[in-house]
Amino acid sequence: MMERIGMLDTYVDNLTMGETVLVVDQFIQERKPLHLMGVNADKINMLRKEPHLRKIVNSCDVINADGASVVWASKVLGKPLKERVAGIDLMYCLMELAEKKGYQVYFLGARQEVVTETIGIVKGLYPELLIAGYQNGYFKREEWPKIAQRIRESQAQIVFVGITSPLKEYLVEYLQNQNLDCVFMGVGGSFDVVSGHIPRAPKWVQKIGMEWLFRVLQEPGRLWKRYFFGNIEFILSVYQEKFRKSK
Questions:
Q1: How far apart are CA 35 and CA 59, in angstroms?
Q2: Do 168 and 186 contact (CB within 8 A), yes or no?
Q3: 156 CB-contact burial (10 Å; exposed 0-12 / middle 13-18 / buried 19+)
Q4: Residue 228: phi, psi to the nearest 5?
Q5: Using alpha carbons only, how large is the chain's radius of gyration in Å?
Q6: Cβ 36 vs Cβ 64: under 8 Å
Q7: What's the pLDDT tens digit per position in 8-22?
Q8: What pTM was estimated for this model as a whole?
Q9: Structure letter (DSSP) for residue 82
Q10: Do the Cβ atoms of 94 and 190 come closer than 8 Å?
């Protein structure tokens, strides 16, 4: 039985990386649909303001702590999580699982150049992986039925969705409503990292929980406001919740 921790208007499952992979494998074997969710400070800030997004996130069967900030918050609130389950690392683990078990994987998102290069890299890393198909993320909402049909025809069991929030959550909700019994995992900008278009922070930076700062330094003009003010908002929210509970 998974331990589900409530914090800041949402929930986080107290799972390690290995435990998450085992849960996903069980869903695939039982042919049960799954929206595999990862939350970080930015997404928690977002869902607290957007009821529809909050409803989607909180209805997911698995919600991972995809951010050192969430692990930190769990400790401050007296409900410590076992570890961070970073989305891109989980993506690699699930590709390894899929190669081992013969599961078919679909890649949806990013620019055509990026997703094509991602497929090339993935084939080199996992030569036996069954790639059901891939599609760039530049399509309109009116095309969602076509996307659903392509995924259905591909017979994919895992679909990685490399689209920004909250659009990817709304898209996955739609696809699940089309009775697709896949495991859908939002991976944000992971295709850019896998393809080499955006470098990932060194391991030591990841370990000290400063991967977000590495990203800001890469694209300061686009990201500094989002992370600077977003982190302040998140920290204040954590201490406000701690204060309310202590009262």
A1: 9
A2: yes
A3: buried
A4: -65, -55
A5: 18
A6: yes
A7: 999 999 999 999 999
A8: 0.92
A9: S
A10: no
Q: Determine the length of the chain.
A: 247
Other Cβ atoms less than 10 A from the Cβ of 22: the count is: 12
Q: How many CA atoms lie within 13 A of 156 on its CB side?
A: 29
CA angle 67, 90, 236 (to 5 degrees): 10
- Phi/psi at 63 (nearest 5 deg)? -125, 115
Amino acid identity for residue 189 in this structure: G
Nearest to 167 by CA among 144, 146, 148: 144
CB of 17 within 8 A of CB of 85?
yes
Which amino acid, residue 215? Answer: R
As beta bridge partners, residue 6 has 11
Nearby residues of 221 by Cβ (< 8 Å), 6 or more positions away: none
Report angle CA 117, 119, 120 to the nearest 5 degrees.
65
Q: What is the pLDDT of residues 162-193, one digit of tens each?
A: 999 999 999 999 999 999 999 999 998 899 99
Q: Is residue 138 classed exposed, middle or buried when 0-12, 13-18 and 19+ CB atoms within 10 A define those classes?
A: exposed
Distance of CA 47 to the CA centre of its chain: 14
- The separation between the first and the last C-alpha atoms of the chain, rounded to the nearest angstrom, is 31
Is the distance from CB of 71 to CB of 123 less than 8 angstroms?
no
Residue whose entry in the numeric block shows the structure tokens 């699940």: 176
CA atoms within a 13 Å half-sphere pointing along the CA-CB vector of 243: 6
